[in-house]
Amino acid sequence: MSDVSKRGIACAILAAAFYALNSPLSKLLLQNVSTTMMAAFLYLGAGLGMLLLSAAKRASGHPSRELRLTRKELPYTVAMVVLDIAAPISLMVGISRTSAANASLLNNFEIVATALIAWMLFHEAISRKLLIGIVLVTLSTLLLSAQDVSSFSFSAGSLFVLLACTCWGLENNCTRQLSGKDPLEIVTIKGIFSGLGSLTIALCTGEPLPAVRHILLALCLGFVAYGLSIAFYIYAQRELGAAKTSAYYAVAPFIGVTLSLILFREIPTPWFIAALLVMIAGTWFVTKADAEC
């Protein structure tokens, strides 16, 4: 395995670790913040945090050597922002029309969507071992999400959740096309404009503004779980491509569940143990596939 691949894998796992903070900490904040408002401030935290980080780098006399976005990348940039607004809306509609367990299970389709779109539209190579790894990691996240398999059903709500996952899969591949450019600039644009879009939707639907302390907490969480995570995700895509990055990034649910077990002092279930074993097998296949490339 080359040093470039190792660096890409490290970035993908860091991205997953930062994003894994999102679920357990958002669960706490959602007691005081409405769902669309939460999404808005998470995105705004990512964008504003990256904007301040870029300003700090320039002020320190160490300007970025990264390439900036140009008009050539405008279609992918616009698509990235629009998809990041459309996906949460579709997810909200889906959750309102199906059970939470059903939505959780289907939400893991994003991993498959990212890899398949990368293969079909952008002609990224997917070896047999990588495909097996993606399937196993996806199965692991399904096991982690499962509360009551009997609740799984196919409905109109399910279609909206699958639409949200497909939007995120497309968005991941659009971001891949921008991965050669400055990640801080990409995340700033992505966060601010997607956040403003979600905030507009929240206000138009009558969701109340949360207390200032909850806004600040959501912004800080967004900076770490979205901003830093997306930045490292882009670095990983630069080295690995969208499909492989998606496979390594899929450890995020496992990390998130582990944090939840610690934070909420829950006892690991047989589903959790089974998911751990499948996750280890999936990671092994992905690593072996990467070594062959």
Rg of Cα set: 18 Å
Secondary-structure class: mainly alpha
State the major sheet. none
Query: pLDDT under 50 segments (min length 5)?
Result: none
N-to-C order of helices and strands: HHHHHHHHHHHHH
Overall body shape = globular
Beta strand count = 0
> What's the rounded overall pLDDT mean?
80
- The CA-CA distance between the termini, in Å, is 8 Å
The level of helicity is over 70%
Figure out the total of helices: 13
What is the beta-strand fraction? under 5%
Index terms:
single chain, about 290 residues, mainly alpha
Topology:
Elements (H helix, E strand, L loop, with lengths): L2 H18 L1 H8 L5 H25 L14 H24 L2 H8 L1 H12 L7 H18 L10 H22 L5 H22 L7 H29 L1 H8 L2 H12 L6 H23 L1
Helix pairs in contact: 1-10, 1-11, 1-12, 2-10, 3-9, 3-10, 4-8, 4-9, 5-7, 5-8, 6-8, 6-11, 7-13, 9-10, 10-11
Question: Can you characterise this structure?
Answer:
This protein has 293 residues and is mainly alpha-helical. Helix content is 78%, strand content 0%. The protein is built from 13 helices and no strands. The chain has helices spanning 3-20, 22-29, 35-59, 74-97, 100-107, 109-120, 128-145, 156-177, 183-204, 212-240, 242-249, 252-263, 270-292. Helix 10 packs across helix 11 (242-249). The radius of gyration is 18 Å and the shape is globular. The termini are close together. 47% of the residues are buried. The model has no long low-confidence stretch (mean pLDDT 80).
